[in-house]
Specification:
Blueprint: H1 6-23, H2 44-61, H3 82-99, H4 120-128
InterPro entries: Beta-thymosin, Beta-thymosin_sf
GO cellular component, one term: cytoskeleton
Protein name: Thymosin beta-4 family
């Protein structure tokens, strides 16, 4: 014969205590509470919106392709007129002229200062007056 362990006895005691607590529970000790509905049922408007949405989805899913008529598409891509094309070619020539510019062709120039800074003497005169 095997003797039950201490853990088994403790578990059995807790189980018995729990069952006794449930059997001898007095419902009069409970406080009265008002229940609040946290997930209310949808109203008529929401149900109607869902029906409309569902009917649209069903209409797309079960669409009868045999009722469609053949249509030819016309491409309405307006091409530019010759004047616009010539203008763009001129801009491309200008860009290529800038990219292929040779700075060796430039002439040497002397810089002439038109607005010289005042001399030290002029600054001293202004400070003293």
């Amino acid at each position: 014969m095997v003797l039950p362990s201490a853990e088994d006895l403790a578990a059995e005691k807790t189980e018995r205590a729990l069952i006794e607590g449930i059997e001898h529970f007095d419902a009069k000790k409970l406080k009265h509470t008002e229940t609040q509905e946290k997930n209310p049922l949808p109203n008529k408007e929401v149900v109607q919106q869902e029906k409309v949405h569902q009917s649209l989805i069903n209409g797309v899913e079960h669409f009868d392709k045999t009722t469609m008529k053949h249509a030819t598409t016309t491409e309405k891509n307006v091409l530019p007129d010759p004047a616009v094309i010539e203008q763009e070619k001129g801009q491309q020539k200008l860009i290529s002229g800038i990219e292929n510019f040779d700075p060796a062709k430039l002439k040497h120039t002397e810089t002439c200062e038109k607005n010289p800074l005042p001399s030290k003497e002029t600054i001293e005169q202004e400070k003293s007056s």
